[in-house]
Write a structure and sequence with these properties.
There is one protein chain. The protein is of the alpha/beta class. It folds into two domains: 116 residues, Periplasmic binding protein-like II (D-Maltodextrin-Binding Protein, domain 2); 154 residues, Periplasmic binding protein-like II (D-Maltodextrin-Binding Protein, domain 2, 3-Layer(aba) Sandwich), CATH 3.40.190. It is built from 16 helices and eleven strands. The strands form two sheets. Strands 4, 5, 6, 7, 8, 10 and 11 form a seven-stranded mixed sheet that branches. It is globular, with a radius of gyration of 24 Å.
Length: 334
């Protein structure tokens, strides 16, 4: 049976339409993150954008917002419409969850309690270590100017505080001795910056202080940018393990229809490629092969968990960092 001329033209037109690929969607997500994570996401975001394009065909833009971890948490809780949060302490995500914006089981969605990387608190000194700093106790000595971020507003500063306190307990000391050490250290802090990056700027660019206490991954960035010949890294005998947790913001992704891409964005942080980027920048990877590859630059350390000494970050927050807590009791008297 022969087709009419009209029918033939119709079939040809239909075939032509089917052969034209559907135009890709343009998608945007916002990642609210702590301030010391900037360099990692500068490299990770293009990696994921290319991965997502290959997987979905969509053009993706990842926008970033950075600041002190607790400050970022408050911003999201107060209405900043971030699709994902990538923080340096679990309590900052818990605070958002308490507002009903994130499901309470957020830490069970991804491996390792939704923390694709870990870090720890270390000590950076000026080249040659002129003050002879070897451990946390040395930061309490008279004449040592210590730069630490505010533990009430920064996860970086909070872990530094917990590391110094916990080092006393894990060495057999008492809470009273731990409090005495930490209060002396903070008595040596001339400027209390709100975030880790501000503390770095004060120490490196403004040339204030003898010592910077910060996350391990910040040290590599400082040396790369300002010269390895200007600073020395001191690993304290005992420090704290700092998990770096992530979560989608459920109310935002459901409102914006971005759940699938947001979850994929966080899941891809566990990929070997992303773990490699993190390790290169001083983040401790979960991937065993990547960790083994970077064993020289990320050596095994004697670390304790927050739970071992403080019960949990939530308990530490309530006792030490809430208004009127231990930190306020000694620091306000300065």
């Amino acid at each position: 049976m022969k087709l009419s001329r009209f029918a033939s033209l119709f079939l040809l037109a239909s075939a032509a339409l089917l052969s034209v690929p559907a135009s890709s969607a343009e998608v945007q997500i916002l990642n609210a993150s702590y301030d010391v994570s900037r360099e990692f996401y500068k490299q990770y975001n293009p990696l994921f954008v290319a991965h997502w394009k290959q997987q979905s065909g969509d053009d993706l833009t990842v926008n970033q917002s950075h600041g002190g971890s607790s400050k970022q948490s408050r911003a999201v809780a107060d209405g900043l419409e971030a699709d994902v949060v990538t923080m340096n302490q679990s309590i900052d995500i818990d605070k958002i969850a308490a507002k009903g914006l994130i499901h309470a089981d957020w830490d069970k969605r991804f491996a390792y309690h939704s923390a694709p990387f870990t870090s720890t608190s270390v000590i950076l000194v000026r080249k040659g270590n002129p003050k002879g700093i070897k451990d946390w106790r040395d930061l309490a000595k008279p004449g040592v100017a210590v730069i630490i971020a505010n533990p009430k507003t920064s996860g970086n500063g909070r872990y530094a505080y917990l590391a110094a306190w916990g080092s006393v307990i894990k060495s057999g000391g008492t809470p009273e001795q731990a409090r005495a050490l930490v209060s002396k250290i903070f008595a040596n802090v001339p400027i209390l910056e709100t975030g880790g990056r501000g503390a770095t700027t004060t120490f490196v660019q403004r040339d204030i202080g003898d010592v910077l206490v910060t996350f391990e991954n910040e040290v590599g960035l400082i040396k790369n940018e300002y010269g390895a010949d200007k600073f020395d890294l001191v690993y304290p005998k005992i420090s704290v393990a700092a998990d770096l947790p992530v979560s989608v913001v459920d109310t935002v992704v459901d409102k914006r229809g971005t759940r699938k891409v947001a979850e994929a964005y966080l899941q891809h942080l566990y990929s070997p490629q992303a773990q490699e980027i993190g390790a290169q920048l001083g983040l401790r990877p979960r991937d065993a092969k990547v960790a083994k590859k970077y064993a020289k630059t990320l050596p095994r350390l004697k670390l304790f968990t927050v739970a071992e000494v403080f019960g949990s970050l939530t308990q530490a927050q309530a006792e030490h960092f809430n208004d009127g807590g231990v930190f306020d009791q000694f620091y306000n008297k300065k």
